[in-house]
Write a structure and sequence with these properties.
heterodimer; A: alpha/beta; disordered N terminus; B: 16-stranded antiparallel β-barrel; about 15% helix; about 50% strand
């Protein structure tokens, strides 16, 4: 961005869902750049040169936190020479700082896989978290750009209304999913499962962050024969093969959900993300 | 007894209350759970520990057709670093302890200590860097991996091969980590443009740790980088390193040879990565040295000349490597590397003057040999924190000899989740 349009807040969002939310709240007062796409595993991103360049000019670095971006976001802070986005500054905001996290590990032992000490970081798939993050984000944007404070607050108010209406609608639509047993790929859909009252019947990864192995999948297949599940659900960025392998043998459908904005055609924004996810789950749960 | 009584009461109770009350009760319970959730929700911490501590454990099991103790890169002045192949048989690699943390809102510090298999402790890096200068500036001071080239600033445990490419071995003694200061500036553009300068003591090769009240090394480097599409990222750079070695000595044929003068080096580097599954990197080095060379065999048991000779010396030598790594299935990677050095041109005043020693008395320096090497590797990473690698190499570093090497390497990291540079 040329220096002349610095009037707008430059937001560097770590992941697509937060990029989309920043657009909802910031409207035309912000320039949003999203560091990753929905087809990239958010755990396995690198602090690539273009991100350091974007971090250099960012007024706000907006990440998930809870160690999700631990492998790369700290490098954007230390290598960009940007004092505004350092930890503890107003220009660094973590969604996890205002959200309610689940699955906080009892013990921190990597024998349990890649455990996140603050809890499961994939918190954007609980719409109640999205609402909390949106309000906190509006406050943060207002603090960074006081002349537009009213604008951000207005945008938040409007968003909250539309969001709560949408959430009620989704909860109604998703009623048939209640109690449905699903196999997940990773713990990245735990919030969704919990919100919709579904039940997790196992995960393709033997431990968080450890890719599926043949032995583990075979064990899962045995278990599914005894206690069947409705579907195998994976995120758009996951390797499709393990889910397809198991779906074929267990004779249950495999379904792809967008996980984040841009993961599927339908997930164009944060509303579309939820709509498309629920539609895809309903299509196989019936 | 109690339990049955309670159960009976519960049944009686639920039997009598109306459905409406139950709903009300559920609602109030829901509220209480939500309140509890709020209370127990802990804000995220900047790291799991303060400071972040991690430990890297490494080891190798190696075999080679030539004795690693005889390792030399013929045609090039020895760089003094630990550049030879690993010892034959089982051996422990360097265990690295990494401690880093923000110090306050203005500074960040990092220490990397290597415990060598010889039971020595080496400080690889110990530096502080600024966080709050702003405007794209970062200042670093202490001992740190220099920003020149591409691989130089990458820690050894994150390399794609067990050892450094030949130009790094010949021209930098493996890598450059001087004591000094570095200033870096990132331009306010969407394309990454990063410029840096370093001033150091020149404590290691190609410098010689002069006992002087001035710096013995300075460098300049620039990097540009960006994306092509959603999945391809690239970076290219150009660096210049200037050192002023004084009596940089090595022994060859029982005679002490030493060089004093200027050493200037250019490095051009690039790296391209595709979606974290494919990566190509390469670097080209060109070094010119000019000054005085000394030949001195007075200390030898059977001196050939029994005198010291000093005369003008200059050389222009170069080297490059190219390597590609491909993740052919999750957790599995394969890579190939080719590296080559060019002996280049060399003028030795002692030989030219005909006063005494001839080219044959400088076999290590003056043998016109272009070392080269082919390396392949396959590695398997059970998780992000462990890696086991098989590496095979055919190494023609020594003139007229091919050293066939095979090694198995393990790299494990414990503790805080490390962040690796691009």
């Amino acid at each position: 961005m040329p220096l002349s349009v610095q009037a707008a807040l430059n937001v560097l969002a770590c992941t697509p869902e937060w990029g989309a939310l920043a657009k909802e709240i910031g409207g035309d007062k912000v320039n949003v750049y999203t560091a990753t796409t929905a087809l990239q595993d958010p755990h396995r991103v690198e602090a690539r040169p273009s991100l350091i360049a974007r971090a250099r000019n960012a007024d706000l670095l907006f990440c998930t936190g809870a160690q999700l971006e631990a492998g790369w976001a700290p490098l954007l802070q230390t290598q960009s020479g940007n004092a505004r986005i350092q930890a503890g500054q107003r220009g660094y905001f973590e969604a996890a700082s205002v959200a309610t996290l689940i699955e906080k590990p009892q013990s921190l032992d990597r024998a349990q896989g890649d455990v996140h000490p603050d809890g499961n970081p994939h918190l954007h798939l609980d719409p109640r978290n999205v609402a909390k993050v949106a309000s906190a984000l509006a406050e943060r944007m207002a603090a960074l750009d006081p002349p537009q404070a009213g604008y951000y607050q207005g945008k938040d108010k409007d968003f909250q209304q539309r969001w709560s209406a949408a959430v009620s609608r989704w909860e109604q639509q998703a009623a048939p999913l209640k109690g449905a047993r699903v196999v997940l790929y990773h713990k990245d859909l735990s919030y969704l499962v919990q919100w919709l009252g579904m039940r997790e019947a196992g995960s393709l990864e033997p431990k968080p962050g450890i890719p599926p192995s043949t032995a583990h999948l075979a064990g899962l297949l045995e278990r599914l024969k005894r206690e069947p599940a409705k579907a195998i659900v994976r995120s758009a960025y996951n390797d499709p093969r393990p889910a397809e392998w198991l779906a074929e043998r267990a004779n249950i459908p495999a379904v792809v959900v967008p996980y984040t904005v841009g993961g599927t055609e339908g997930a164009k924004d944060i509303f579309g993300l939820y709509e498309d996810t629920i539609a895809r789950l309903l299509a196989v749960a019936r | 007894m109690y339990r049955t009584l309670l159960c009976a009461m519960a049944v009686a109770f639920t039997g009598t209350v109306q459905a409406q009350d139950t709903r009300g009760e559920i609602e109030s319970l829901k509220r209480r759970v939500e309140e509890l959730e709020k209370k127990s929700a802990v804000g995220p911490r900047s790291g799991t520990m303060n400071p972040d501590i991690s430990l890297i454990l490494q080891g190798t099991a190696a075999r080679s057709s030539q004795n690693p103790d005889d390792y030399q890169i013929t045609g090039f002045a020895p760089s003094g670093g630990e550049v030879g192949p690993p010892r034959r048989g089982f051996s422990l690699g360097e265990s690295e302890l990494v401690i880093s943390s923000n110090i306050d809102p203005y500074f960040r510090g990092q220490l990397i200590v290597a415990l060598t298999p010889e039971d020595e402790v080496e400080v690889e890096e110990a530096f502080v860097q600024t966080l709050a200068l702003g405007r794209g500036f970062t200042l670093k001071g202490g001992r740190f991996l220099s920003g020149i080239g591409y691989q130089n600033s990458i820690h050894q445990h994150a390399w794609d091969f067990q050892d450094a490419p030949l130009p790094y071995k010949a021209f930098l003694g493996g890598r450059l980590n001087d004591d000094g200061v570095q200033v870096k500036w990132v331009a306010p553009t969407d394309l990454l443009v990063e410029l840096g300068a370093e001033l150091g003591r020149g404590r290691s090769f190609p410098g010689t740790d002069p006992n002087r009240n001035r710096s013995g090394m300075w460098s300049l480097f620039g990097h540009v980088g960006g994306d092509v599409g959603a999945n391809t990222a690239w970076r290219a750079g150009l660096s210049y390193l200037k050192t002023s070695p004084e009596e940089r000595a090595f022994t060859d044929l029982d005679a002490l040879k030493s060089f004093s003068g200027d050493s200037k080096m250019w490095i051009a580097d690039f790296v391209v990565k595709y979606a974290r599954t494919f990566k190509v990197q390469g670097e080209y080095f060109r070094r010119t040295e000019s000054g005085q060379l000394t030949y001195d065999d007075t200390a030898a048991a059977a001196p050939l000349f029994g005198a010291a000779f000093t005369d003008g010396y200059s050389s222009r030598q170069s080297g490059w490597y190219l390597h590609g790594v491909y993740e052919f299935m999750p957790r599995w990677r394969a890579g190939y590397r080719y590296d080559r050095l060019s002996h280049g041109s060399m003028s030795n005043g002692i030989v030219a003057s005909g006063a005494g020693p001839t080219a044959a008395d400088f076999p290590l320096l003056m043998t016109d040999h272009n070392p080269s090497r082919n390396t392949v590797m396959v590695d398997w990473s059970p998780s992000e924190f462990s890696r086991i690698r098989l590496q095979l190499a055919s190494d023609k570093s020594r003139a007229g000899v091919t050293d066939n090497q095979a090694l198995l390497q393990f790299i494990f990291s414990l503790g805080a989740h490390g962040a690796h540079t691009f």
